[in-house]
Amino acid sequence: MFTPRPHNPVLAALLTLLAAALLAGTTLLAKALGTGALGQPMHPLQISHGRFLFALMAIGLVSVIVRPRWTRPDLATHVGRSCLGWGGVTLMFAAAAFIPLSDATAISFLNPVFGMILAVPLLGERVGPVRWGAAGIALVGAAILTRPGGGVVEAGALLALGAAVCLGAELIFIKRLSGREGPWQILLINNAVGLVIASLAAVWVWIAPSAAQWAALLGIGLLMALAQTCFVNAMARGDASFVAPFFYTALVFAALYDGLVFGVRPDAVSVIGAAVILCGAGLLAWREGRRRQTPAPVPPA
């Protein structure tokens, strides 16, 4: 399933669009759980536990069927990556309960920006003026979405910003693992380690989920596993610089879901902030594409 495939741009685009739609669905379900739409409001720590639990079950089941080739894993790097991924997912789920899904999704697109910034001291990468300019533009968009002085809305945006920082730092660990271990192995180990971390955290806030909440948690895990699978397969069939722009449609799906389910419509500030972030992220993707090292956005761990 995850071996290199011949280039197929059409299929790569379709798989990326599907991954974006599935990923937006996970934040929708997280919002339903966190806001009490399905019963007693659930803590983000417990929501992320369900995400890792059911994603691991799904990925583990498929791994038994496809039997991917295993190599010796770099456990220290996996643990670091999983800690950051768990933190990013948890903060993202927390943000979804406070701000429109479109805002939270737009801010999450900063993860390659923070990944680029952190790569300077951690990986010794050199960053030119175009890439710094792209990062600056994207950060201005995030500043717009924080709505300074907006109270609860501002706090939710800061949670999403924290998620983007964690996911950006996670990219550093992903770079270290890529090329050394197979994508399927990385996904399986990441979700296993993430489940251990999430279980230790969730025990302090645990409530007995209702049947509807269990179904939503199951949905989050399955949708996340499918999103990761679609994205990895898309990357195997198309260049990262080609795939990345299609992943930004997650913003459209998030706004659509939020409007249909919760009746939330993006306001002018949301549209302007998201547009500025997409301009910066798009410029960065274009520049990195020319360098053939595009830090494409990745589904949360």
From TrEMBL:
It holds the Pfam family EamA. Belongs to the drug/metabolite transporter (DMT) superfamily. 10 TMS drug/metabolite exporter (DME) (TC 2.A.7.3) family. It comes from Roseovarius azorensis. It comes from the Bacteria. The keyword Transmembrane applies. InterPro entries: EamA_dom, EmrE-like. Residues 12-146, 156-284 form the EamA domain. Keywords: Membrane, Transmembrane, Transmembrane helix. Coiled coil: none annotated. It is found in: Membrane. GO terms for cellular component: membrane. It is a multi-pass membrane protein. This is EamA-like transporter family protein. Its main location: membrane. The chain crosses the membrane at residues 46-66, 78-99, 105-123, 130-149, 155-174, 186-207, 213-235, 242-262, 268-286.
